[in-house]
């Protein structure tokens, strides 16, 4: 049981149709986040986060975020909690401020990299960590019982000023160094990074070029950001920039781009940052924590240089747990969600971008030179197969023909390839990934498996 709450919940109490995915609650804003339900989620969180102190709420720029924040505030204050509304902010600002002010917990209203019509709620406990499975069970059970009543009244306060503390923590993370006159492109994705991204890099002396730089909930993640890299690649080449960083909607992840327009994803960031720390003897056990999605070429290159790579399930909560258990200093996901001991293992795209910038400057290496020192990725292809809501998502697991096909593919790929099939925890998709040192095998098996998967679950 997490220390975030005092409630005793049995091991088997989690309902089958959970509203929680791999990263909080997420879905279409109009379909999932009805005002009454959001209010009840807020009141349930108010009961769960039972420690003294306020509950913080941040949000990204989505048009639905204001309604969800208001309904959560109503529920929390109905549970007697004091609420501090931070406004639009990067997700990592919430756990930092929770710990700074000994808050009872916090909520972030965001659907991260999802389309503008989606939204979500990420819930943090008093320790700044995302709530546990047991705590999710408590919220599920409270929502099922529907016996909500107002016992006391809390108050809400606008605390946008607290973002200054988060900004200061980012600047402090790089000491007295600067980025004087270095041309850098930032794709702020019309989202949370627009609040501080340009300001921080300018304060450090960088020559900043910004695209998608204002908060706009109708454009967030649309053809831009960490999942759509062509705009920033073009901007880097057009402005002769030395590097670029593309963030997602809530700025907890980032993808880097070198001056030639080449992509440095989360695997490259882990490898290069890890190599820098390893050379300085600042990487405990030379260990990196990655997920099942990380490239096999990355793993082989890291182990070849004496490093240890440990894989987890997809999701930053799994990476976080492994890092805590092994005392690892660095870990993350291929998507650019990087966790570091610099900020108590909280994924932060802005912090990662700053660190990458300064390591490049200190090492006197352009990003392209640095990337050339990285690993050679194995060809990898990912296909998303839509899942229909009315279809049992276990159908592909129970299909003998489908499972036989996966075994056949794995046998053909041998030790130089992988097949990974998993359901997305944030979208109604079945993800089919095939990886091998043989490009033709990747194309063949990924296409075949995805085609059979589509017919199996349709």
Describe the fold and architecture.
- With 458 residues, this protein is α/β, with parallel strands linked by helices.
- The protein has three domains: 20-165, Alpha-D-Glucose-1,6-Bisphosphate, subunit A, domain 3 (Alpha-D-Glucose-1,6-Bisphosphate, Chain A, domain 3, 3-Layer(aba) Sandwich), CATH 3.40.120; 183-370, Alpha-D-Glucose-1,6-Bisphosphate, subunit A, domain 3 (Alpha-D-Glucose-1,6-Bisphosphate, Chain A, domain 3); 380-456, Alpha-D-phosphohexomutase, C-terminal domain (TATA-Binding Protein).
- The chain has helices spanning 29-32, 35-48, 65-78, 93-100, 133-145, 163-172, 197-203, 230-238, 266-279, 296-304, 316-326, 349-363, 367-372, 395-398, 400-413, 439-456, and strands spanning 20-21, 24-28, 55-59, 83-88, 105-109, 118-124, 156-158, 183-187, 207-211, 243-247, 254-258, 263-264, 287-291, 308-312, 330-332, 338-340, 380-386, 417-423, 429-436.
- It has a seven-stranded mixed sheet, sandwiched between helices. Strands 9-8-10-11-12 form a five-stranded mixed sheet, with helices on both faces. Strands 14-13-15-16 form a four-stranded mixed sheet, with helices on both faces.
- Strand 3 (55-59), helix 3 and strand 4 (83-88) form a beta-alpha-beta unit.
């Amino acid at each position: 049981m997490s220390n975030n709450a005092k409630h005793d919940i049995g091991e088997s109490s989690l309902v089958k149709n959970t509203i929680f995915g791999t990263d909080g609650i997420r879905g279409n804003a109009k379909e999932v986040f009805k005002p009454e339900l959001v209010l009840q989620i807020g009141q349930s969180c108010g009961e769960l986060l039972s420690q003294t102190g306020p509950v913080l709420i941040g949000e990204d720029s989505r048009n639905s975020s204001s309604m969800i924040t208001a309904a959560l505030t109503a529920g929390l204050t109905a549970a007697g909690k004091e609420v501090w509304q931070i406004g639009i902010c990067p997700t990592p600002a919430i756990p930092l401020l929770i710990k700074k002010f000994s808050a009872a917990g916090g909520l972030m209203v965001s659907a991260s990299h999802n389309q503008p019509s989606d939204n979500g709620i990420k819930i943090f406990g008093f320790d700044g960590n995302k709530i546990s499975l047991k705590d999710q069970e408590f919220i599920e059970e409270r929502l099922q019982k529907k016996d909500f009543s107002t016992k006391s009244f809390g108050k809400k306060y606008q605390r946008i000023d607290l973002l200054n503390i988060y900004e200061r923590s980012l600047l402090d993370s790089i000491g007295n160094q600067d980025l004087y006159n270095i041309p850098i492109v930032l794709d702020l994705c019309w989202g949370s990074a627009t609040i501080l991204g340009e300001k921080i890099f300018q304060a450090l002396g960088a020559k900043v070029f910004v695209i998608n730089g204002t908060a706009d909930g109708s454009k967030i993640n649309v053809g831009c950001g960490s999942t759509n890299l062509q705009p920033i690649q073009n901007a880097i080449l057009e402005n002769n920039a030395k590097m670029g960083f593309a963030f997602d909607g809530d700025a907890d992840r980032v993808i880097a781009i070198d001056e030639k327009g080449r992509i440095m994803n989360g695997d490259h960031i882990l490898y290069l940052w890890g190599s820098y720390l390893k050379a300085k003897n600042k990487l405990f056990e030379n260990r990196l924590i990655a997920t099942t999605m990380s490239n096999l070429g990355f793993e082989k290159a890291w182990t070849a240089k004496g490093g240890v790579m440990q894989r987890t399930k997809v999701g930053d909560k799994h990476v976080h747990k492994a890092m805590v258990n092994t005392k690892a200093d660095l870990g993350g996901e291929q998507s650019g969600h990087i966790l570091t001991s610099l900020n108590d293992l909280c994924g932060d795209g802005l912090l990662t971008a700053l660190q990458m910038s300064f390591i490049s400057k200190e090492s006197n290496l352009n990003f392209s030179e640095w990337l050339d020192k990285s690993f050679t990725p194995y060809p990898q292809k990912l296909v998303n197969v839509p899942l229909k809501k009315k279809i049992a998502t276990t159908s592909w697991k129970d299909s003998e023909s489908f499972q036989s096909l996966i075994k056949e593919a794995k046998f053909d790929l041998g030790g130089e390839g992988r097949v990974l099939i998993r359901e997305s925890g944030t979208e109604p998709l079945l993800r089919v990934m095939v990886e091998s040192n043989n490009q033709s095998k990747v194309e063949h098996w990924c296409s075949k498996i995805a085609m059979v998967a589509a017919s199996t679950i349709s």
